C-alpha cells in the first residue's frame, strides 16, 4: 500500500535557481529538483548517492533529533553547487573533508563546496544537525509522527526530509546504515538486518540496522518507542524481525496473528513474483501511523487494520510491494499503478490461495460494485494526478486492469511476465510504458487497447475484466474475502489523506 502524503517539499527560491556568475568554467549548480511532474522539487540533480550512514540520537521526551549523516555519492556533471532535500536545522557541512558553505530555505539544503567538483568525482558529504522534527511543516502538516513513547518516521512519498538529508526521489536508490541512540528501555526499528545494540555510558542504548540492497529514500524509516521485538528465522533462512507497540490494547493478538505469518505470505508470493528480492523480512505494528506502508524489508501497519480480527490481506498487499514498489520502483510518481495495482491484485491471489474467493470472483465483484455514474471510473490509474495518486480507484481499478491483462494473455504468459518483469527491473525503476512493452513481447499480443481502456480512459469499461458485462450492482455474490479487502483499501486510502 502506500500512504498518500500529497506534500511537495522545497519550493525552490530564486537564489537556489540562479547560476553562479562567470564564464570560464563549465561547472553549474545541480538542479533543485529531479523533474518529476507530480513533485517538481523532489530530488536533486548533479549527483547520484550510493550510501547513507545515519548516526543519530533521539530523545522521546523532547522530540530532539541530532546526529550526523555521511553521504557517499558521485557527481554526474561538473558542479559548483548542489542541493539536498532537508528541513531540519544544520550545524555544519563538509564535502570531501573540507568545510562547505550552505544555506537552507523551503526544504532545500544548498551546499557550496567552495570549489568545483568535476563530473565523475567521488563525494563524501558530512552533515551535522540538531532539531525538533515535529516543529517543521509543509503545507500545514508535519509528516514526522510523534507518539506518547517515541516517534515514527514513516510516510510516502515524503518522509526523509524530516530526519535525514537526501536526494529524495526513487530514482536515486542507495544502501543504508541507520544507527539511533535512545534512552535505555526504548526500542528502535528500521530496515534490513539488525546489527545489534550497544550500551552507552550515559544511560542510552544505540540500535543499529543495515540495508544492503538499493533503497529509495522514502522507504527508509525508523519506529521509536516501547515495542515487543521478536526475532525468528524464515523457512528460507532469512532473519525475521517483527515488533508490536506495547500500546496496541485489544488489537495486539489479532496483529500478531497476522504479522507472524509474514514468511508464509512471502513464500506464497514468490510463486507468482519470483525470488524475494531482499535480505530480511518482518513487520512493525504501531498506533499513530494511520495507514500501512511497504518500508523495505519490514512493512509498518496501523493497528486499525486488525480491529476486526486477523488480516492477512494487508500483509499480502504490503509484502507484494517488496517486489512491486520497493525492488522495482516508480520512475516517476505517475507510474504508481505499477505499485498499487499489483499489490492490490496480490490480495486477489491470496484470496484464491486461502479459498476465500477466486481472483475472477473478486474482480467481477469490484467491477459490479461501482455503477457507471460512480466518480471511481473517472480516476485514471495510469496517470491519476498528484491529488489522486492514492485514490481508491488506483487500488481497485488498478487491480481490475491487472486481472484484465491476466485474462487476455492467459495464466502461463501472465505469470511468466510478472517474474520476468521483477527480475529485469530488480533494484531499479520502471515506467508503465516499459511494462506494456514487455507484456506484448511475452504474450505475443498487441495490448494497447486493453491498457488504454483500463488505465487511461475515463468511464466504466463496457466489458468487465473477465470478459463479462454486468448491468446492475449485486449481480455477483460477494466473495468471502472481499469485505476484508475492501476494508483494507478503505483504510489505506483514508490514511493517505493529510
UniProtKB/TrEMBL annotation:
Q: Name one Pfam family in it.
A: Peptidase_M1
Q: What class of enzyme is it?
A: hydrolase
Give residue ranges for domain Peptidase M1 membrane alanine aminopeptidase: 260-454
Q: Which family does it belong to?
A: Belongs to the peptidase M1 family.
What are the protein's UniProt keywords? Hydrolase, Metal-binding, Metalloprotease, Protease, Signal, Zinc
Q: Which Gene3D superfamilies match?
A: Neutral Protease Domain 2, tricorn interacting facor f3 domain
Query: Can you provide one Gene Ontology molecular function annotated for this UniProt record?
Result: alanyl aminopeptidase activity
Domain (Aminopeptidase N-like N-terminal): residue spans on this chain:
50-219
CC cofactor: Zn(2+)
- EC numbers for this chain: 3.4.11.2
Q: What is this protein called in UniProt?
A: Aminopeptidase N
Which residues does UniProt assign to the signal peptide?
1-26
According to its UniProt record, which reaction does this protein catalyse?
Release of an N-terminal amino acid, Xaa-|-Yaa- from a peptide, amide or arylamide. Xaa is preferably Ala, but may be most amino acids including Pro (slow action). When a terminal hydrophobic residue is followed by a prolyl residue, the two may be released as an intact Xaa-Pro dipeptide
GO BP of this protein: proteolysis
Question: Which SUPFAM superfamilies did the record assign?
Answer: Leukotriene A4 hydrolase N-terminal domain, Metalloproteases ('zincins'), catalytic domain
The source's domain of life comes to: Bacteria
Amino acid at each position: 500500500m502506500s500512504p498518500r502524503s500529497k506534500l511537495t517539499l522545497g519550493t525552490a527560491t530564486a537564489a537556489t535557481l540562479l547560476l553562479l556568475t562567470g564564464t570560464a568554467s563549465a561547472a553549474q549548480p545541480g538542479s533543485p529538483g529531479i523533474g518529476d511532474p507530480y513533485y517538481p522539487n523532489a530530488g536533486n540533480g548533479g549527483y547520484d548517492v550510493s550510501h547513507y550512514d545515519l548516526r543519530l540520537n533521539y530523545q522521546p521526551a523532547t522530540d530532539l533529533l541530532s546526529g550526523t549523516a555521511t553521504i557517499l555519492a558521485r557527481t554526474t556533471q561538473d558542479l559548483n553547487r548542489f542541493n539536498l532535500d532537508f528541513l531540519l536545522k544544520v550545524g555544519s557541512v563538509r564535502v570531501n573533508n573540507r568545510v562547505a558553505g550552505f544555506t537552507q530555505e523551503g526544504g532545500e539544503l544548498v551546499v557550496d563546496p567552495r570549489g568545483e567538483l568535476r563530473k565523475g568525482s567521488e563525494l563524501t558529504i558530512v552533515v551535522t544537525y540538531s532539531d525538533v522534527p515535529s516543529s517543521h511543516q509543509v503545507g500545514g502538516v508535519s509528516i514526522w509522527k510523534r507518539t506518547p513513547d517515541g516517534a515514527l518516521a514513516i510516510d510516502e512519498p515524503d518522509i526523509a526530509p524530516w530526519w535525514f538529508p537526501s536526494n529524495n526521489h526513487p530514482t536515486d536508490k542507495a544502501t543504508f546504515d541507520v544507527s539511533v541512540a535512545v534512552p535505555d528501555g526504548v526500542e528502535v526499528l528500521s530496515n534490513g538486518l539488525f546489527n545489534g545494540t550497544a550500551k552507552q555510558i550515559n544511560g542510552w542504548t544505540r540500535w543499529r540496522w543495515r540495508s544492503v540492497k538499493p533503497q529509495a529514500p522514502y522507504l527508509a524509516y525508523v519506529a521509536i518507542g516501547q515495542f515487543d521485538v521478536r526475532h525468528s528465522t524464515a523457512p528460507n533462512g532469512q532473519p525475521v524481525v517483527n515488533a508490536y507497540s506495547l500500546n496496541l490494547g485489544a488489537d495486539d493478538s489479532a496483529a500478531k496473528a497476522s504479522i507472524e505469518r509474514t514468511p508464509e505470505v512471502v513464500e506464497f508470493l514468490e510463486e507468482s513474483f519470483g525470488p524475494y528480492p531482499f535480505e530480511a523480512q518482518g513487520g512493525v505494528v504501531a498506533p499513530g501511523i494511520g495507514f500501512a506502508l511497504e518500508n523495505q524489508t519490514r512493512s509498518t501497519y496501523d493497528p486499525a487494520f486488525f480491529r476486526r480480527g486477523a488480516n492477512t490481506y494487508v500483509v499480502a498487499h504490503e509484502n507484494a510491494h517488496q517486489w512491486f514498489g520497493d525492488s522495482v520502483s516508480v520512475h516517476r510518481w505517475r507510474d504508481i499503478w505499477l505499485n498499487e495495482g499489483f499489490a492490490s491484485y496480490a490480495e486477489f491471489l491470496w484470496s484464491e490461495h486461502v479459498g476465500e474467493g477466486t481472483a475472477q470472483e473478486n474482480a467481477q465483484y469490484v467491477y459490479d460494485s461501482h455503477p457507471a455514474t460512480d466518480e471511481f471510473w473517472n480516476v485514471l490509474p495510469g496517470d491519476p494526478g498528484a491529488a489522486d495518486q492514492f485514490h481508491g480507484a488506483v487500488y481497485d481499478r488498478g487491480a481490475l486492469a491487472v486481472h484484465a491483462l491476466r485474462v487476455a494473455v492467459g495464466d502461463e504468459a501472465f505469470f511468466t511476465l510478472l517474474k520476468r518483469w521483477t527480475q529485469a527491473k530488480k533494484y531499479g525503476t520502471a515506467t508503465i510504458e516499459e511494462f506494456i512493452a514487455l507484456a506484448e513481447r511475452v504474450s505475443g499480443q498487441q495490448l494497447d487497447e486493453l491498457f488504454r481502456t483500463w488505465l487511461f480512459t475515463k468511464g466504466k469499461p463496457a466489458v468487465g475484466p473477465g470478459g463479462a458485462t454486468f448491468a446492475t450492482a449485486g449481480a455477483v455474490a460477494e466473495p468471502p474475502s472481499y469485505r476484508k479487502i475492501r476494508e483494507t483499501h478503505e483504510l489505506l486510502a483514508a490514511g493517505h489523506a493529510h
